[in-house]
Design brief:
219 residues; alpha/beta; eight-stranded mixed beta barrel; 7 helices; globular
Protein backbone atom coordinates (compact mmCIF):
# COMPACT_ATOMS: atom_id res chain seq x y z
CA UNK A 1 0.00 0.00 0.00
CA UNK A 2 2.90 2.36 0.72
CA UNK A 3 3.96 2.29 -2.93
CA UNK A 4 0.56 3.38 -4.25
CA UNK A 5 -0.42 6.96 -4.98
CA UNK A 6 -2.23 8.49 -2.03
CA UNK A 7 -5.19 10.78 -2.68
CA UNK A 8 -6.02 13.21 0.12
CA UNK A 9 -9.60 13.76 1.20
CA UNK A 10 -12.07 14.91 3.81
CA UNK A 11 -15.59 13.88 4.75
CA UNK A 12 -18.17 16.47 5.73
CA UNK A 13 -21.75 16.94 6.88
CA UNK A 14 -23.90 19.83 8.05
CA UNK A 15 -21.67 20.02 11.14
CA UNK A 16 -18.75 21.46 9.15
CA UNK A 17 -18.62 25.27 9.08
CA UNK A 18 -17.35 25.70 5.54
CA UNK A 19 -16.61 29.25 4.43
CA UNK A 20 -19.58 30.67 2.54
CA UNK A 21 -20.91 33.79 0.91
CA UNK A 22 -24.70 34.15 1.15
CA UNK A 23 -25.20 30.40 1.29
CA UNK A 24 -22.75 29.71 -1.54
CA UNK A 25 -19.88 27.47 -0.39
CA UNK A 26 -17.75 27.83 -3.53
CA UNK A 27 -15.20 30.05 -1.80
CA UNK A 28 -14.75 27.53 0.99
CA UNK A 29 -14.29 24.58 -1.36
CA UNK A 30 -11.82 26.57 -3.46
CA UNK A 31 -9.71 27.01 -0.32
CA UNK A 32 -10.10 23.32 0.50
CA UNK A 33 -8.86 22.30 -2.93
CA UNK A 34 -6.00 24.80 -2.77
CA UNK A 35 -4.95 23.19 0.53
CA UNK A 36 -4.18 19.99 -1.39
CA UNK A 37 -7.42 18.06 -0.96
CA UNK A 38 -8.33 15.80 -3.89
CA UNK A 39 -11.78 14.54 -2.87
CA UNK A 40 -14.65 15.07 -0.48
CA UNK A 41 -17.18 12.55 0.83
CA UNK A 42 -20.42 14.37 1.74
CA UNK A 43 -23.13 13.01 4.00
CA UNK A 44 -26.22 12.71 1.82
CA UNK A 45 -28.63 11.66 4.56
CA UNK A 46 -29.54 8.65 6.63
CA UNK A 47 -31.95 6.87 8.93
CA UNK A 48 -30.41 7.69 12.30
CA UNK A 49 -33.49 8.80 14.25
CA UNK A 50 -35.65 9.20 11.14
CA UNK A 51 -35.20 9.16 7.38
CA UNK A 52 -33.60 12.44 6.38
CA UNK A 53 -31.51 14.31 3.86
CA UNK A 54 -28.54 16.29 5.12
CA UNK A 55 -29.65 19.94 4.85
CA UNK A 56 -26.28 21.06 3.47
CA UNK A 57 -25.77 18.22 1.01
CA UNK A 58 -26.99 19.98 -2.11
CA UNK A 59 -25.04 23.19 -1.45
CA UNK A 60 -21.87 21.28 -0.58
CA UNK A 61 -22.26 18.99 -3.60
CA UNK A 62 -22.77 21.90 -5.99
CA UNK A 63 -19.80 23.88 -4.67
CA UNK A 64 -17.41 20.93 -4.53
CA UNK A 65 -18.27 19.96 -8.09
CA UNK A 66 -17.89 23.56 -9.24
CA UNK A 67 -14.28 23.78 -8.08
CA UNK A 68 -13.28 20.40 -9.51
CA UNK A 69 -13.04 18.29 -6.38
CA UNK A 70 -13.87 14.60 -6.75
CA UNK A 71 -17.08 13.88 -4.85
CA UNK A 72 -18.55 10.85 -3.09
CA UNK A 73 -21.21 10.51 -0.42
CA UNK A 74 -22.17 8.51 2.65
CA UNK A 75 -25.43 7.44 4.24
CA UNK A 76 -25.69 7.32 8.03
CA UNK A 77 -27.60 4.14 8.92
CA UNK A 78 -29.60 4.10 12.17
CA UNK A 79 -30.28 1.77 15.09
CA UNK A 80 -32.76 -0.25 13.03
CA UNK A 81 -30.14 -1.23 10.45
CA UNK A 82 -30.05 -4.80 11.74
CA UNK A 83 -32.09 -6.95 9.34
CA UNK A 84 -32.00 -7.67 5.62
CA UNK A 85 -35.41 -6.04 5.16
CA UNK A 86 -34.33 -2.85 6.93
CA UNK A 87 -31.18 -2.77 4.81
CA UNK A 88 -33.35 -2.91 1.70
CA UNK A 89 -35.57 -0.08 3.00
CA UNK A 90 -32.53 2.09 3.70
CA UNK A 91 -31.19 1.35 0.23
CA UNK A 92 -34.43 2.52 -1.39
CA UNK A 93 -34.23 5.78 0.58
CA UNK A 94 -30.61 6.18 -0.46
CA UNK A 95 -31.59 5.74 -4.12
CA UNK A 96 -34.07 8.60 -3.93
CA UNK A 97 -31.33 10.83 -2.52
CA UNK A 98 -28.79 9.76 -5.15
CA UNK A 99 -31.12 10.40 -8.09
CA UNK A 100 -29.97 13.22 -10.34
CA UNK A 101 -26.40 13.37 -9.01
CA UNK A 102 -23.06 12.13 -10.31
CA UNK A 103 -20.35 10.80 -8.01
CA UNK A 104 -16.67 10.31 -8.83
CA UNK A 105 -16.05 8.40 -5.59
CA UNK A 106 -17.98 5.46 -4.09
CA UNK A 107 -21.28 5.83 -2.26
CA UNK A 108 -20.84 4.56 1.28
CA UNK A 109 -23.00 3.21 4.08
CA UNK A 110 -21.92 4.16 7.62
CA UNK A 111 -22.91 1.27 9.91
CA UNK A 112 -21.78 2.48 13.35
CA UNK A 113 -25.12 3.06 15.10
CA UNK A 114 -26.93 -0.30 15.40
CA UNK A 115 -26.06 -2.25 18.55
CA UNK A 116 -23.20 -4.82 18.29
CA UNK A 117 -25.50 -7.55 19.65
CA UNK A 118 -27.08 -7.55 16.16
CA UNK A 119 -23.77 -8.25 14.42
CA UNK A 120 -25.18 -10.86 12.03
CA UNK A 121 -28.26 -8.74 11.33
CA UNK A 122 -26.14 -5.65 10.63
CA UNK A 123 -24.09 -7.71 8.20
CA UNK A 124 -27.27 -8.95 6.53
CA UNK A 125 -28.51 -5.36 6.26
CA UNK A 126 -25.22 -4.13 4.81
CA UNK A 127 -25.20 -6.83 2.15
CA UNK A 128 -28.82 -6.16 1.21
CA UNK A 129 -28.14 -2.42 1.05
CA UNK A 130 -25.09 -2.96 -1.14
CA UNK A 131 -26.81 -5.39 -3.48
CA UNK A 132 -29.65 -3.00 -4.24
CA UNK A 133 -27.30 -0.12 -4.94
CA UNK A 134 -25.12 -2.31 -7.14
CA UNK A 135 -28.21 -3.43 -9.07
CA UNK A 136 -28.79 0.27 -9.76
CA UNK A 137 -25.24 0.78 -11.06
CA UNK A 138 -23.57 2.32 -8.02
CA UNK A 139 -20.08 1.60 -6.71
CA UNK A 140 -20.71 0.74 -3.06
CA UNK A 141 -18.49 0.97 -0.01
CA UNK A 142 -18.77 0.46 3.75
CA UNK A 143 -17.47 2.92 6.34
CA UNK A 144 -16.81 1.89 9.94
CA UNK A 145 -14.20 2.04 12.66
CA UNK A 146 -11.61 -0.72 12.64
CA UNK A 147 -12.63 -2.31 15.96
CA UNK A 148 -16.03 -0.93 17.08
CA UNK A 149 -17.33 -1.15 13.52
CA UNK A 150 -15.78 -3.86 11.38
CA UNK A 151 -14.89 -6.17 14.27
CA UNK A 152 -17.78 -5.65 16.67
CA UNK A 153 -20.65 -4.95 14.25
CA UNK A 154 -19.85 -6.84 11.05
CA UNK A 155 -18.87 -10.32 9.94
CA UNK A 156 -15.90 -9.05 7.96
CA UNK A 157 -15.46 -12.01 5.63
CA UNK A 158 -19.02 -11.54 4.34
CA UNK A 159 -18.56 -7.88 3.36
CA UNK A 160 -15.02 -7.88 1.98
CA UNK A 161 -16.36 -7.79 -1.58
CA UNK A 162 -17.38 -4.17 -1.01
CA UNK A 163 -14.88 -1.33 -0.93
CA UNK A 164 -13.89 -0.74 2.70
CA UNK A 165 -13.26 2.67 4.30
CA UNK A 166 -11.77 2.19 7.74
CA UNK A 167 -11.41 4.69 10.59
CA UNK A 168 -8.66 4.38 13.18
CA UNK A 169 -6.80 7.24 14.83
CA UNK A 170 -3.20 7.16 16.00
CA UNK A 171 -2.21 4.11 13.96
CA UNK A 172 -3.24 2.18 10.88
CA UNK A 173 -6.08 -0.37 11.09
CA UNK A 174 -5.05 -3.73 12.53
CA UNK A 175 -8.25 -5.78 12.34
CA UNK A 176 -9.17 -4.93 8.73
CA UNK A 177 -6.19 -6.06 6.66
CA UNK A 178 -7.31 -4.76 3.26
CA UNK A 179 -9.00 -1.43 2.65
CA UNK A 180 -9.19 1.27 -0.01
CA UNK A 181 -9.75 4.31 2.22
CA UNK A 182 -8.38 5.20 5.64
CA UNK A 183 -9.79 7.88 7.96
CA UNK A 184 -6.85 8.79 10.17
CA UNK A 185 -8.08 11.85 12.07
CA UNK A 186 -11.27 13.54 13.25
CA UNK A 187 -9.51 16.76 14.27
CA UNK A 188 -8.09 18.02 11.00
CA UNK A 189 -7.64 21.73 10.33
CA UNK A 190 -8.06 22.69 6.67
CA UNK A 191 -8.26 26.11 4.99
CA UNK A 192 -11.87 26.81 4.04
CA UNK A 193 -13.35 25.04 7.09
CA UNK A 194 -13.80 26.94 10.35
CA UNK A 195 -13.96 23.91 12.63
CA UNK A 196 -12.42 20.44 12.78
CA UNK A 197 -12.91 17.91 10.00
CA UNK A 198 -12.20 14.22 9.34
CA UNK A 199 -9.09 13.52 7.24
CA UNK A 200 -8.83 10.60 4.83
CA UNK A 201 -6.42 8.83 2.52
CA UNK A 202 -7.52 6.92 -0.57
CA UNK A 203 -5.34 4.37 -2.37
CA UNK A 204 -7.50 3.74 -5.45
CA UNK A 205 -8.13 5.99 -8.45
CA UNK A 206 -11.88 5.66 -8.04
CA UNK A 207 -12.81 8.42 -10.53
CA UNK A 208 -11.09 6.47 -13.31
CA UNK A 209 -12.65 3.16 -12.27
CA UNK A 210 -16.14 4.63 -11.91
CA UNK A 211 -15.98 6.60 -15.14
CA UNK A 212 -14.79 3.58 -17.14
CA UNK A 213 -17.61 1.42 -15.75
CA UNK A 214 -20.19 4.23 -16.14
CA UNK A 215 -21.35 3.91 -12.55
CA UNK A 216 -22.69 6.40 -9.98
CA UNK A 217 -24.72 8.38 -12.49
CA UNK A 218 -21.61 9.32 -14.47
CA UNK A 219 -22.51 9.95 -18.09
Amino acid sequence: MANKKIYKGIDVSRHQNIVQENGDYTKGFKLIKKAGIDFVIIRIGGSNGSYYKDPKFEAFYKAAKAVGLKVGCYYDTGRGFNTRVNGQIDAQHMLTLLDGHEFDMPVYMDIETAAPVYRQGITDAAIAFGEILEENNYFVGIYASDISGFKDRLQLDRVKRFSLWVARYGKKPTYVDKYDMYQYSSTGIIDGIQNKVDLDECYVNFPAVIKKAKLNGVK
